[in-house]
Amino acid sequence: MRKTAAYLAAMTASAAELLVACLAEQECSRVFTVPGESFLPVLDALHGHPAIETVTCRQEGGAAFMACADGAVTGRPGVAFVTRGPGATNASIGVHVAFQDSQPLILFVGDVARGMRGREGFQEIDFPAFFAPVAKWATRIDEAERIPEFVARAYATAISGRPGPVVLALPEDMLSDPAGEAAPRPYVHRPAQAPCPDALTALRAMLADAAAPVAIVGGAGWDTKARTYFQMFAERLGVPVATAFRRQDAIAPSSPVYAGNLGYGPNPKLVERIKAADLILAVGARLGEATTDGYTLVTPDHPGQLLVHVHPDPNELNRVYRADLAICSDMAEFAESALMWDDGSIISFDCGAEAHREWLEWATPGSDGTKLDLAACLAAARAKLPADAVICNGAGNFSGWWHRYWPYAGWPSQLAPTSGAMGYGLPAAIAAKLRLPERCVVAVAGDGDFLMNGQELATAAQYGLDLIVIVIDNGSYGTIRMHQEREFPGRVSATDLANPDFAALARAFGGWAARFETADQFAAALDEALGRTGIRMLHCVSDIERLNAAGTTVTALRARR
Question: How are beta strands 441-446 and 467-473 bridged, if at all?
Answer without folding.
Answer: parallel
